[in-house]
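User: Is it possible to get a 3D structure for a protein together with its bound compound? The compound here is flavin mononucleotide. I've pasted both below.
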Amino acid sequence: MELDLSQTDHLLTTTRAVRKRMDLERPVPRELILDCLRVAIQAPTGGNTQRWRWIVVDEPDKKAALADMYRAGWKPYLEQSKQARADQGLDPETAVSDSADYLADRMHEVPAMLIPCLLDRGDGPGYWGSVIPAAWSFMLAARSRGLGTVLTTIHLFSERDAADLLGIPDTVSQAALIPIGYYTGDDFKPAKRRPVEEITYWNTWKQTDPTA
Ligand SMILES: Cc1cc2nc3c(=O)[nH]c(=O)nc-3n(C[C@H](O)[C@H](O)[C@H](O)COP(=O)(O)O)c2cc1C
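Assistant: Yes, that's possible. Here is the predicted structure of the complex:
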């Protein structure tokens, strides 16, 4: 089957971090989350180990507890990054920090949260690379179904507390917390990025000329 590039490229270039446009009122059916996960677990893993588990949190009390942990990590992180920007003579306020702050304040209201987990404690590229591609596939599958997501990591400052809350054993790692909700509005636009030619090198570091 030939893929429709206008559709696939549109999906890949417009899957944005959805925060202010997440519909906090409309519940997300569990079956729809499972559909997205069914797509996501086709993603690659090192050695095809598939040592992932997926925890979906949609109980209000547990969402509220995770949101408190998130905010406890977020507020100092925000202050620190604003200070760092101010020290560099940059405007401390950015669109991302404003939008992320908005989400932090409402984190308990998101319809569902997904925590991708790995059945081992580890580190390094082969380790995280065995769950993040699937997490991104989940986000793409969600976007295709009218759902917005955003990959967040701030709750990991309280990873142990989150594990206790959810009954996750000591041997398991959490990779992220992905809020899930329907998005409002029709569509998203590709984001501004540096031209790919400037950041792609051919055979030698900093060799940007593809004809060289
Ligand atoms: C590893 C990683 C960690 C992130 N952590 C957070 C987070 O804790 N909170 C948050 O609001 N966004 C988080 N983000 C989302 C980024 O801020 C977002 O992807 C980036 O600003 C680009 O926005 P866009 O996806 O709309 O282009 C994270 C993204 C990645 C890839």
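The longest strand covers residues 112-118. The chain has one domain: 5-199.
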